[in-house]
Amino acid sequence: MTGDHYFTAEPTTAAQPREVEFSVAGRDYTLASAGGVFSADRLDPGTAVLLRKAELPTAATTGPLLDLGCGFGPITCVLATSAPAATVWAVDVNQRARELTAANAARVGAADRARVAAPDGVPADVSFAQIWSNPPIHIGKPELHELLLRWLPRLAPDGVAWLVVARHLGGDSLHRWLVEQGWQVERHASQKGYRVLRVTR
Asked: Is this prediction's pTM over 0.90?
């Protein structure tokens, strides 16, 4: 056993490359994955609910989008293919995850519109039309709150954030906390024990 988590900056777990197949909105995806990243063997069930139930961007969507905690890049790839006029920032602390996301963006023809970065690599003046995240609940509540307090304020004035959280991992308490911070929060959908939250200013 190693001490690696999907939020480890530089995983030492053997990569053991693999592929993950899934479909969203009638489109099939086959993406590269590897050990040491979040949900390496399949599309995470929470991410699947998020991509099924939230309102995907359209061909008319422009402006920067953010995939916060991108893992191997399934959300990035779906956003990039759904919104071919948009730029997608893919942010993760995990170097292997970032490398996979960059490779997968190229697989779906979006290498020129995907900006893959560590958290400190996103220019301070970029604000986001949309933020998408299956946030890393297991980093702990204080760290999760710190993460959201860092990124949600970068939402454009008319922007929207889509978050998915398992109910048994605190989805409802996170909803309340976001409201306490002054955000407008709607439980947009519930499925398979997950809450999809729509967050606006």
From this structure: yes
